[in-house]
Amino acid sequence: MPERRSRGASGSRRRLLPEPRLYPLLAALMAGLLLSELDQSMVAAALPTIVDELDGVGDLMWVNTAYLLAATGVLPLYGALGDRWGRRPVILAALGLLMVGSVVGALASGMGVLITARVIQGLGAGGMLVLVQAAVADVLPVRDRAPVMSAVGAVFAAAAVAGPLLGGWLAGGPGWRWTFWINLPVGGLALLAGCWLLPKRPADAVARRWRARDLVPLGLFRVRIFALVAVAGLVLGAALFGAVGYLPTYLQLGLGLSPVTAGLWMLTLVGGLAIGTLVSAQVVGRTGVHRPLPIIGAVAAAAALALLAALGPTPALPLVGVALAVLGVGIGGAWEVLVVMVQNAVESSRVGAATAMNGFTREVGVVLGSAYAGGMITTGLADDTPAAAVFGPVFAALALVAVVGAVVLLAVPRKPLSTARPAADRELARR
């Protein structure tokens, strides 16, 4: 898309939002993404009710684990399939899997059927994030993607806040099966909108023989920018989300807050995340400057984790709130900008594969960080260490990991963001 300019006395300036004709398409993509994210948090909140009704305490861990394993395992595949066949059929297939899994889950009569439903949902949800990010790349120049990527971050924040509340309400009111049934109207609307609005096929797709190794495109790691950003994403995923996943536990077990009060304090992190994503989008869109933002974000997040570690077992809650807000700002300033950098590093015909492989390495980092933090916390609690004292060493270690991520990002070469108009946007303009 050519730079959209409005002239004034001082010359011209960039518009930071996409053209209005793209809003329905972007809304449909965000609806599908919100559906996939809510599937995780709603069911997690309703899980105690589910296992009680289905008498499945022994299989409790597999309800979420099966979903996560399926979603993570298919990440690289979706990117390559989207590059090969176009984003529309692959996104529609992912939405279809989400809806089929929702129907199976809603009708489940036992834990085995429910876990099967979660696998089907995971196979669909695994593609939504990378496919949405790649679809945005199909219709917007690299320089103009940051505001839309910040909307992706807003979807995550909305799901993080609304998912547990909605899942708990449904489980205690209409019934836990509605955590699955509720997906059908949202998914159906997203499916219809996708059929109508998504470009049929990237107009600049490269005609070449497709090879099996294209499904897992490890050759992308020969591109220096991609490799460094992907490694940094893995490291930061371990540090940031290894901590975020256990912050509610820290607030409840460590500081003795009630679940509701802990949830309210977690809103400080969500607020910081919103500020970080909005500021980074403004900076990238107006100036094209992008490389320093993830470095600053990683340092800010490391400082926040170090502050949490230094506060000790009896911290002042306002200081904890400040640390959570700064952590959110750091995540918001870094996370989506890294996706833009990855997409800018490769040719347009491989943007889906690059986005997916980057997402896969991030998820590996998240799993490693969560496993480390969970193991340290479990070991500390098993040794009868006071709960408030267990979390400090974990936060300190993860702060050091975040610093490593910042150091890796310092080695990323500078490359200006492209302002070239994608071919799929030209297709939409002709409709």
How would you summarize this macromolecular structure in one to three sentences?
With 431 residues, the chain is mainly alpha-helical.
Keywords:
single chain; 431 residues; mainly alpha; Growth Hormone, Chain: A; 2 domains; two-stranded antiparallel sheet; disordered N terminus
| Annotated CATH topology of the largest domain | Growth Hormone, Chain: A
The amount of helix comes to over 70%
Label the structural class.
mainly alpha
CATH class of the largest domain: Mainly Alpha
Detailed description of the structure:
It comes from Microlunatus aurantiacus. Residues 25-417 form the Major facilitator superfamily (MFS) profile domain. With 431 residues, this protein is mainly α. Helices cover 74% and strands 2% of the residues. A hairpin with a 2-residue loop joins strand 1 and strand 2. The two termini are 15 Å apart.
